[in-house]
Amino acid sequence: MHYGDLSDSEQISNILYNIMPQEVYHLGAQSHVMVSFSMPEYTANVSGIGTARILEAIRRSGNHTKFYQASSSEMFGRTPSPQNEESPFSPTSPYAVAKVYAYWMTKNYRLGYNLFACNGILFNHESPRRGEIFVTRKITMAVANILAKKQQFLYLGTLEPKRDWGFAPEYVEVMYQILQQEKADDFVVGTGQQHSVLDFVEKAFSYVNLRWQDYVKCDEKYLRPTETNDLAADSSKIKKIIRWTPKVQFDDLVKIMVDADMRKAGLQPIGEGDEFLRKHFPNRWWKTD
Ligand code: G4F
């Protein structure tokens, strides 16, 4: 383990110079969209300029380090779905603006300095390890805690925005694949299926036979000043070039996450999510949620 910070260019340079890594997967960020409205300057520094610090350190090191930038579907913002590599960016949050900066820096270091630098433009990817303040995990934890009588209500912002939610382990595999290509390039990664926050709520509550209307309440404090409403990936390019197709679709994702949170709450899971994982990902991470 080496310690560093995305706001500390000297430390990043030292680490890269000493380790001389073959590949860097840059996933570090202030990654919460709502938080970025409260901390725009910090978000720009870490999620935007942090990328420039790593790219510059790689360039100065003179090593042939390959670089993966965790770009985000949030960069499309107001651009209508489906979004692909040619779609214009129209960011609607300080987080998304910072990510657009990082995207272009990655592209420019590829074009200008011939670095093997790639953008994976990933749509939302979730799992039982998702942070508790992101909407999917907040919902699945609430379902489990309501069943366990540890929570009475679930407070959310708007239920209307639509997202393209996939399963994070499959997206991590594709990050690796992106850096194994002969040519550095940028790729959109998503399932192509679109669902609203309400769809997620309905699916999670009905999976355990609860009526969501009895538990979900709106709290305006979760409303964002500007919102991204319509995300769905057109992943034709990565399907064609890398032959990547996700196995986990929306219904299975919800079940996997609810089962895991039921187990964490000390309950017996319904089991359909666990069963799906056993079948499609034998001997894999599902044991460790
Ligand atoms: O789960 P979210 O906070 O994820 P969001 O904003 O889509 O961003 C995530 O995905 C991006 C990829 O597109 C990443 F780049 C980013 O780092 C992050 O991982 O919110 C999803 C939707 C939003 O429309 C939000 O307004 O859910 C809505 N929502 C409604 N109530 C809520 C809540 N979101 C949160 N976090 N908490 C709520 O109570």
Describe, in plain words, how this protein is organized in 3D.
With 289 residues, the protein is α/β, with parallel strands linked by helices. It folds into two domains: 9-122, NAD(P)-binding Rossmann-like Domain (Rossmann fold, 3-Layer(aba) Sandwich); 131-163 and 195-230 and 250-280, Alpha-Beta Complex (UDP-galactose 4-epimerase, domain 1), CATH 3.90.25.10. It is built from ten helices and ten strands. It has a four-stranded parallel beta sheet with strand order 1-2-3-8, sandwiched between helices. Strands 4-7 form a two-stranded parallel sheet. Helix 4 (94-113) links the parallel strand 2 (66-72) and strand 3 (117-122). Helix 5 crosses helix 9. The protein is globular and about 60 Å long. The protein starts with 8 loop residues before the first helix and ends in a 9-residue tail after the last helix. The mean pLDDT is 96.
SSE inventory with pairings:
Blueprint: H1 9-19, E1 23-26, H2 33-38, H3 40-61, E2 66-72, H4 94-113, E3 117-122, E4 125-126, H5 135-147, E5 154-156, E6 162-163, E7 166-167, H6 168-179, E8 186-189, E9 195-196, H7 197-207, E10 216-218, H8 236-241, H9 250-264, H10 272-280
Parallel strand pairs: 1-2, 2-3, 3-8, 4-7, 5-10
Antiparallel strand pairs: 6-9
Ligand G4F is lined by residues 31, 33-34, 72-74, 123-124, 133-136, 138, 156-158, 161, 163, 197, 222, 224, 227.
Distinctive features:
2 domains; 4-stranded parallel sheet; 43% helix; binds ligand G4F; globular; two-stranded parallel ribbon; 289 residues; 10 strands; single chain; 10 helices; Rossmann fold; UDP-galactose 4-epimerase, domain 1; alpha/beta
